[in-house]
């Protein structure tokens, strides 16, 4: 993402904090026009705005994938643990995934795969790997 998208998004987010709510749509429209003139796609600009909002709110997005997409009380425990560890507010989104069981947690570029699917895949790869047979004379 180019620095123009970041600059315009940053200005919009900071300005939006001081504007009355009724003036926000006009400010967003103006920022979109600036972004378009700078050759920034609407999609990339909106991603830049999302990132700027996350930074300004000290917010870290996280994704928890489970079979059902609903981890229940565990989701709250995971969120609290992440917030304590990262010292940031965590926005945990849950998603149903085509895994056999377990969970996959993604925070930023970090991914923790505790799914049964990946465990079985690793076990299968281990069993298929060639083994070294040592010949010892007795």
How would you describe this structure to a colleague?
The chain has five helices and four strands; from the N terminus they run αααβαβββα. The chain is elongated and about 80 Å long. It has a four-stranded mixed beta sheet with strand order 2-1-3-4. The chain has helices spanning 3-16, 24-37, 42-56, 73-86, 116-128, and strands at 59-66, 89-96, 104-107, 110-113. α1 (3-16) packs across α3. The protein has 138 residues and is an alpha+beta fold. The mean pLDDT is 91. Helix content is 51%, strand content 17%. β3 and β4 (110-113) form a beta hairpin.
Quick structural overview:
The chain is an alpha+beta fold and 138 residues long.
Attribute tags:
single chain, 138 residues, alpha+beta, four-stranded mixed beta sheet, 17% strand, elongated
Number of helices: 5
Helix content: 40-55%
Strand content: 15-25%
Q: Strand count, sense and closure of the main sheet?
A: 4 strands, mixed
Strand-helix topology:
Elements: H1 3-16, H2 24-37, H3 42-56, E1 59-66, H4 73-86, E2 89-96, E3 104-107, E4 110-113, H5 116-128
Parallel strand pairs: 1-2
Antiparallel strand pairs: 1-3, 3-4
Helix pairs in contact: 1-2, 1-3
């Amino acid at each position: 993402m180019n620095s123009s998208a970041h600059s315009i998004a940053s200005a919009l987010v900071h300005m939006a904090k001081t504007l009355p709510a009724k003036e926000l749509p006009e400010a967003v429209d103006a920022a979109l026009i600036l972004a378009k003139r700078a050759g920034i796609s609407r999609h990339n600009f909106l991603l830049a705005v999302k990132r700027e909002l996350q930074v300004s709110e000290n917010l870290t997005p996280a994704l928890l994938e489970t079979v059902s997409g609903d981890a229940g009380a565990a989701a709250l425990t995971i969120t609290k643990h992440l917030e304590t560890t990262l010292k940031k507010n965590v926005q945990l989104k849950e998603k149903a995934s085509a895994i056999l069981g377990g969970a996959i947690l993604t925070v930023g570029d970090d991914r923790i795969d505790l799914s049964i699917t990946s465990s079985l895949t690793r076990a299968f790869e281990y069993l298929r790997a060639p083994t070294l047979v040592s010949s010892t004379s007795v």
